[in-house]
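Retro notes, structure queue

What went well: the backlog is down to a handful. What didn't: a couple of records were mislabeled last round, so from now on we paste the full input next to the output in the thread. Example, using Solute carrier family 35 member F6 from Peromyscus maniculatus bairdii:
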Amino acid sequence: MAWTKYQLFLAGLMLVTGSINTLSAKWADNFRAEGCGGDKDHSFQHPFLQAVGMFLGEFSCLAAFYLLQCRARRQSDSSVETQQPFSALLFLPPALCDMTGTSLMYVALNMTSASSFQMLRGAVIIFTGLFSVAFLGRRLAPSQWLGILATIAGLVVVGLADLLSKHDSQHKLSDVITGDLLIIMAQIIVAIQMVLEEKFVYRHNVHPLRAVGIEGFFGFVILSLLLVPMYYIPAGSFSGNPRGTLEDALDAFCQVGRQPLIALALLGNISSIAFFNFAGISVTKELSATTRMVLDSLRTVVIWALSLALGWEAFHPLQILGFVILLTGTALYNGLHRPLLACLRRGWRVPSQEGEQERLLGDSRTPINDAS
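Corresponding output:
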């Protein structure tokens, strides 16, 4: 089945904005500028402020939802009106998980490479599968268990590649190991978030863009308020600012004022997360959930290739093996092998995508916030 121009646009938008999201955050981390009070040049390491910006991008998804709602009403689409009443506080627990997991990942991104960061996020499959069995009463298919085992093997290979790679003064071996472990810890929290969303949010038939927007609102407000006590909490070696505190938002604003390109990187991060969420949900509706998974895997390749081209990291052949194993695990867990086997049985004819398509307003069952 040939893709339309609109479907190609959505696929390209998801791939580009998803790549920009990680690359822009890493780009901001690579800048050095003076801080407040004439402090000497130092790296822009403000993960919690960056997380606030990401939640602002998620919050903007509410605008996209209401635009779609107005359009659907003009076209007499009743799917918008069938949503059950719900309390916005329903989204507070997953929003807290999102806030914690995202903050940990931004801290980790300061310590490790962008490609390893993206690859190690595949660990979410392991914990999501285990938690869905424990708390949702699901039974995983043998292929899903095999996918989990493959993902574990892939994570070991990627971690080994990080250990054997050459490290510069910015990314010491101890920092890389700590960063990799923080990413995996963050995936445990993200998996809890996904289980909470499926257990409580989906039963109310909430549109994914609306759910992302509400969670973004909670994350933005709560984390913005937490920046105040973080300004005074000592963080020792985990701090990246001259004052040695958990976060110094004033220092960040001073650095942005002295190096305007940091503002451009932050703006790219904020806007890309909003467009990525919209494009991802639209791809699921217009094409399939499998297509979305494939595009998300391609995003890792783009991030890896650009990081190498920009000289942000050194090439290690083990990363290729690790990525292939992780991709295999993701494919097995998400059932990508089924349409491939169907193609072989049908003499390489491409099966219809109608069974995989999901409606944009009401019936999506993909993780509503798997793009942070």
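Agreed that this is the format going forward. Reviewer comment attached to the example: The chain has one domain: 46-70+85-345.
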